[in-house]
Structure formats: C-alpha cells, structure tokens
Amino acid sequence: MTNQKDMKDIVALCKRRGFIFPASDIYGGINGFWDFGPLGTELKNNLRDRWWKDMVITPPIGPDGTPIEIVGVDSAIIQNPKSWEASGHIGGFNDPMVDCKESKKRYRADHIVVYMPKDGEGHYIAVDPDADEAEIEKRIKKLSGGKSIGNFETTTFDQLESEQIENVIGPDVKDAGTLTEPRQFNMMFHSYAGAAAGEENKVYLRPETCAGIFLNFKNVVDSSRVRVPFGIAQIGKAFRNEVTPRNFIFRSREFEQMELEWFCEEKDVPMWFDFWVEQRKKFWNDVGIPLSKLHFLDVPKNELAHYSSRTIDFEYQFPFSGEGYDELEGVAHRGNFDLTQHQEFSGTKLEYMDPQDNQNRFLPHVIEPSAGLSRGVLALLSEAYTVDENRPSGVYMNFTPEMAPKKAAILPLTAKEDHVPLAQKLYLELREEFVVDLDIKQNIGKRYARQDEIGTPYCFTIDNDTIADQTVTVRERNTMAQERIHMDKVADFMRDKMRKGADALKKAA
Ligand code: GAP
Q: What is the pLDDT of residue 52?
C-alpha cells in the first residue's frame, strides 16, 4: 500500500464529495475565498466543537491540580477603528508586495526565492516559491547559459538592495528589470459604516479574532467571577487581504481562527507557556494529527511578531510543504502589549485588581494559543487522505470517528421493500445521537466506495439475514473487515467506538 498525497487530488476529492468548493464557483471563483460544502461544514464544526469543549466546557486541570477557568466571547468583526491603531494593525500589519511590469503578476517579496551567481557574473534569477526542484534547475540552466544550480546561492527578494533589483529576472519572465521595489501593503480589508463613504466612516474587518477578546477584557472581568489566571476564548472569522493567497484553504483572504488569550501574572508566564504548549500538542494528537507529523519551531527573536517575546509555531507537513513544514498554530507570549495599548488609546483603565489584595493592580500578561480553524481542517484532510490501490475508490479518508463528517452509513443491500424499512428504522434511531447517512441508491460496492471517500468509519448493511435474525453487517472503513452484530446493539457499538476515539481505528491506519 502506498500513500502519496498530492494536493491536486485532495482538492479534487473535496470538490467531488462536497467538502470545499471555490467561492462563487459558477462565476469562475474568486481568488482567496472558499465555501465549505455539506461535509466540509460538518468536519469544520467537529474540529471547532472539540476546541471549544477542550477550552471552555471542560478546560484542563492546571499545573497545581485544580481546574482552570476559561470563558467564551463572540465579538463583532467590525470594531472602533481606533482599536486597530492601538493594536498596531493600521500602522504595521503589512506585507512587502512586488509587481512584475511585464507579466502583471504580484508576489510577496519575502516569498520570491532569488538565485545569485556565486561568481557575481550574470543575472539574478527569481523563481516561484511553488516551483519544484526540477523546474528550478531547468529554468536556471536556460537563463544562465547552461550553469548548474551549484553555482548559485539563494536569498529572498526582500533581502536585496535597491541597485540589485534591476538585475533580477522575475519568476514568470525571461528578461531582467521587470520587478518593482517592494512596497508595504496593508492587509486589512476596509469598508465604510453608514451611508457616507468618507475617511471618518472608514472601518476595518478584523484581521485576527483576539482583538475582540482584549477589547472585552474589562467587561468580562466586571461581569463574571473570573480571577487571574483565567482565559477568554473566541472562534470566528478573520480577514486578511493576502497578497498571494495560495495552497487551497491554507492561506486565504477569509478564514477562521480559534484563539485563547490566557491572562496571568508575569512571574507565572514560563509555567503557563509550557502548560499551553503541552495542551495544544494533546489537542492536535487527539483530533488525528500525530505528534510525529508536527514540528515545533521556537521562532527566532528577529522573526517574532511586534507583540511577542516568545512564540512556538506548531508546523505540519502539508502535502505542499515538501520536506519542510508550514504553520498550523502559534503559541505566543504577548506580554501585556495589547492591554497597555488599549488602555492608552481608549483612556479606560484596564488594570486588574486582585480581589484578595486591593493594593495589587496590574495589567496581566497573556499567553495566546492561536490556531487556524480553516488551516486545521486542511491538516485533517491532508492527514486523512490515504491512497489504497486495493479498494475500488483507490482512496479513503482516515478521519477519527469524532472528526468524521458522517459517523456511520446505513445501507440496505438492495432497494427492495423489505430491506429499506429496516434500514430506515436503524437510521432514525442512530441519527438521534450521531450524524449518519442513509444511502439506498447504487450497488453496494459503489456505496462503500463513496463512504470510504468521505471517511465514514462504519457502514451497517441490511440484507436478507437481517430479516431472519435481526443482525446487520458492520464494515469497518480502514480494514474493510466485516462482522455481524444484532440491530439492537448498533447504538452501543457506535457509542463505544466514539468513546475510544482515534484508538477505535488505530490498528488499521
Ligand atoms: N492572534 C495571533 C495571530 O493571528 P497569526 O500567526 O497571524 O497569529 C494565527 O495567525 C493562525 O491563524 C495561523 O497559525 C494560521 O493557522 C491561521 N491563519 C493566519 N493567516 C491565515 C490565512 N491567510 N489563511 C488561513 N489561515 C490563516
């Protein structure tokens, strides 16, 4: 059995089976926007619900053995524009953008890889970051008059001096001098609130969900019984006008985030930072991304975001990552940057007063585990995609039972009158507790193939024996092994499998 994963195949399966579609598909799509179809919505909701459960409903036990406290908010996407000045987004949420005057293409300067001849002779050759090694070698040979790649060293376009830019052959052209100098491009989408479209009515769509948490810090403290240390969680849409959206839903212009802001005393930061890194590892492992597939990057100081003094990026080997990894989540120590800024810009005191010691007023420090929900869905899809030439579908989606969009399918062997009513009875019973499918059409092989492709872990088939002895066939997705169980035991069987989670299917994965 082989398991090559190709992004093109995953994208095709997502469309064919109704996980994810290009937004405005019938109009040819719109770059950087995607719609979740029936199964993608279930999958996303499963990941979202597990995060919310782990954070807000049953948060972990803290390092001292007592349960910790986290509450949720659901804040507006559009907030007072002053809040984005305070957070640094209006001034600094920029990406360096480069245009090609000939191809009319636009690139992120820090994504363009530039090959510079080691001997200093000849043009610099830029390549698209998505190009594979063979393409790069071919391009370099062709444009350098036969030199091999070993004669070049690499940098990224944003590292070049102005006078070097003229000498660069852009990624999609054959002559040097067509790329512009990088320009800073603010990634926030804007609109106008109200009828007048003037600067005074200009508003922004939030580029990260955490903003609404900081803005409500005082409201939550004043209205709830939370005490530092505690957390505020939020899941929702964020918008970034990415210069180059790419890799399916990995980098899109509209996406969802799952963010926790954990407020604590400065002296406790190292303890909580480690605690949250461990909790987040457990989460990804539980939803089906084994730790062996993740890489943990302690982000170098010079690459940290303006608010962070330490960040660990959780990186996953997506099918387009080659030998490398790409970011799935970041756990950051944001200090008290945000509360300090909002206090200063709003003029509202945001200091927390320890209720046991009315003297002690302070702005808590923040640990922020910030995960992409849309990116998490892509990681689940990528991890689940399993090539198996031994089955008619050629592929199955190895979701954990908890993440699978459909937990089970009920399949009457034939559309005969005596199979269908029993199937309907089982379906109506199971759907009270589980998201299940009743599929009556086509031959059984085709229906198994469809369920394999959508990642349904269990299929229950109703046949003539069911009429005789009330037993059904259970087919397990990964092994394709079949056994018979009594119809009355199906709900218990499902409960047991759901409880076992990823372990229910481990042996066959
Ligand atoms: N509040 C911190 C923050 O927003 P970030 O690293 O910019 O940090 C956090 O984003 C997570 O949001 C990323 O790890 C990624 O999973 C997701 N994310 C960021 N930009 C995205 C985009 N354009 N498309 C999809 N997901 C994105």
A: 98
